[in-house]
Design goal:
Helix content is 83%, strand content 0%. By secondary structure, it is mostly helical. The longest helix is centred in the middle third of the chain and has 39 residues.
Length: 137
């Protein structure tokens, strides 16, 4: 059995260099939204991205498998339809951003509400670039 999250995860591995784009975007936004200094903004984004890439990406694959086991068997009966692709990207993008925001809360004592938007925006740009480069089945 395979599902779209595996393809998205493989693109994350193919586009590893996008982590630097994400860190740059997130750092700029964190600097101005949270009032962190530049060093702390870069550190927060870097640590969040490292944890999200090593833990979150794998975790999101299993979350999406659960989605497919429940929704595909009851609603769509087809794994690779456009709605499943969209849900996969949305859940993986915003789920890993939530993980990054949680890490920021734990390590830097900053509220998730304050850090989630900048982190989600950086992820969104990178996931859009990956989505434009996936050849759908």
């Amino acid at each position: 059995m395979t599902w779209p999250a595996v393809y998205v995860f493989s693109k994350i591995q193919d586009f590893w260099f996008l982590i630097f784009v994400s860190i740059a975007i997130e750092s700029i936004l964190l600097r101005f939204i949270t009032k962190f200094d530049w060093k702390k903004s870069i550190l927060v984004s870097s640590i969040g991205n490292i944890i999200a890439n090593f833990v979150g990406s794998y975790l999101m694959i299993w979350v999406m498998l659960l989605w497919h086991c429940i929704v595909d068997t009851t609603v769509f009966h087809k794994t690779f339809n456009p709605i499943n692709w969209g849900v996969t990207f949305i859940c993986m993008c915003f789920g890993t951003a939530l993980l990054e925001a949680f890490v920021t809360k734990v390590l830097f004592k900053k509220k998730i509400k304050k850090t989630y938007l900048p982190l989600a925006f950086g992820n969104m740009i990178c996931y859009l670039i990956m989505a434009m480069n996936i050849k759908y089945i």
